[in-house]
Amino acid sequence: MITLVFALYNEEKRIYLLEQGLKEYNNQHQLIKEIIFVDDGSTDSTVRYLRQMQSKYPQFNIKIIPVQTNRGKGNAVKEGIMTVTQPWVLCNDADLSYSMDQIDEWVNMEWIDFTKINEVYFGSRELGKDNQEMKLFLHRRIIGRIYAFFIQQITGISVRDTQCGYKLYPSSLAKQVFNNISEERFAFDVEVHFLLKKLNISINFLPVRCIDIKGSKVHLISDSWQMFRALFRIKKRHG
Question: Got the DSSP string for 27-75?
Fold first, then answer.
């Protein structure tokens, strides 16, 4: 039913969180049929740990896709999505700041209709905040609000939280969209929203439980500047 995609880069210090999540996850509705780990050119022991998990958890049909040179999360997610075999694909962050059972909670709440292949379901940390289910570092909240302002001003996308890493797509639609994604780093999420808007795809925003984990690969100054500049590229490319 669902392929779960993770993008990883030099995660050896935090990868225990991912393994702990896999170990404890009972796959309540048996939704996760495949897990794809995309290693984005790690130079540490990330791949070795991934291979160990591949052997320890055969029930998840784990596949590892190596990217030889680090190119960015957007490219890694794209690499994973283009190889999924299940009809739905779920993207999650490797540090499991969004818990493994979040998808089961959505299903229990009857928020997902798997018969609709022209709709997507995106996690919203803002909605999670409204439900007191979000624990983000203060600087992340401030930067997120500033970035959302510039996104709306430059691209016309009025979404409170484009950067949430928890997103569920019909696989055929995800492949169509990501085949046209050019942003390789963190701004790819904005490009996804831009393309979905052009395709008139319905986006269902659902609350997520999110807890910030130390060790994020987002660099406050350099990545913020890169993501700001990317907005103009996205507008020019698809506008």
Answer: -TT--EEEEEEEEES-SSSHHHHHHHHHHH-GGG-EEEEEESS---HHH
